[in-house]
Design goal:
This protein is an alpha/beta fold. The protein contains 9 helices and 6 strands. Helix 2 runs antiparallel to helix 6 and helix 7 crosses helix 8. It has 2 domains: 207 residues, no CATH class; 88 residues.
Length: 306
């Protein structure tokens, strides 16, 4: 009979409580290495306005901000709540980091490379994949050729690809994963979704994660705090779903409806007024007294003479 997998602490809780310790960098390095297809080494955890430890920090812009051995800044955010403007949110986040990490006197070539990783427990957009990568490239309008860097630029930036200069975005749509781990990255996605690591999983960092994130190794106080945190997530997600999302969508629909109605009414009023003015002008041309024209059309003398 197969043994039941041991319960592990969720990745978001681990980032807030455990993985910021240098002794545990191996876990986060393993995840980033598998996702980015690179051997990632974390040099430090950077301070950010979202490195908090309150129950509502899942609403913050970032969960963690790290610098790797290539001096690239990696943003890792775990988000449970739907946000209609989430794509603009991650754009703002990466842009703010760029501004934060360049001095006024420095050349633009010193701008840091930013990698934004977003672990989403809700459906964002329409698509049947569970991992999406976004980059910036420039393509010719006529011959569809992709713009590359010249020799001197390539030497400066250590790459020939323009997209390597600009921020990269990863969207991991956890709910779209089918629980079938086809490769080592999928093993990590399985853990992110199910909070367990199967015995045969070999992805980088998972062995350390299994050791560090063991629920049973937590103290009684830590377990109670963790369970309370998980309950708060369920509660706030339910409240958000039943109030904010529904209310916002209903508000948008009602706003559109009222806007269309107001627009039609305003258009009709403008049309009637235009028709009255035309009638007034015609009556004046026929020699009618202006006071009489105003009385018949309902327009003021000022409106008729304008």
């Amino acid at each position: 009979m197969p043994t039941k997998e041991r319960k592990l602490i969720s990745f978001d809780w681990a980032i807030k409580k455990i993985l910021r310790s240098k002794a545990n960098f191996e876990v986060l390095e393993g995840f980033l290495s598998e996702l980015l297809f690179d051997d990632i080494k974390i040099s430090e955890i950077l301070e950010s306005e979202a490195n908090k430890e309150s129950l509502d920090d899942k609403f913050n812009r970032l969960d963690i901000k790290v610098k790797n051995s290539n001096d690239e800044i990696v943003l890792v955010e775990i988000q449970y709540n739907r946000e209609l403007d989430y794509l603009q949110r991650i754009l703002y986040g990466s842009s703010k980091v760029i501004v934060e990490h360049i001095k006024e006197s420095e050349a633009y070539a010193k701008i840091v490379k930013v990698i934004s990783i977003n672990i989403l427990y809700f459906d964002l957009g329409v698509g049947d994949d569970y991992i999406y990568k976004g980059t910036t490239s420039f393509k010719g309008l006529h011959n569809k050729s992709v713009l590359k860097l010249n020799a001197r630029q390539s030497e400066l930036y250590k790459t020939e690809l323009v997209e390597k200069i600009f921020p990269e975005y990863y969207l991991i749509r956890i709910n779209n994963f089918d629980d079938i781990a086809k490769d080592s990255l999928d093993e990590w996605i399985y853990f992110l979704k199910n909070e367990e690591i199967k015995e045969h999983f070999k992805a980088k960092g998972l062995a350390k994660a299994k050791e560090v994130l063991d629920y049973l190794k937590c103290s009684d106080a830590e377990r109670r705090e963790y369970e309370y945190y998980k309950e708060s997530l369920h509660y706030q997600a339910s409240m958000y779903e039943s109030t904010y999302v529904v209310g916002k969508m209903d508000g948008i629909k009602e706003g559109i409806k009222e806007g269309i109605k107001a627009g039609i009414e305003q258009g009709i009023e403008k049309g009637i007024e235009k028709e009255k003015l035309a009638t007034a002008k015609a009556m004046l041309a026929e020699g009618f007294d202006i006071e009489m024209v105003a009385k018949i059309t309902g327009l003021t003398t000022e409106m008729i003479l304008q």
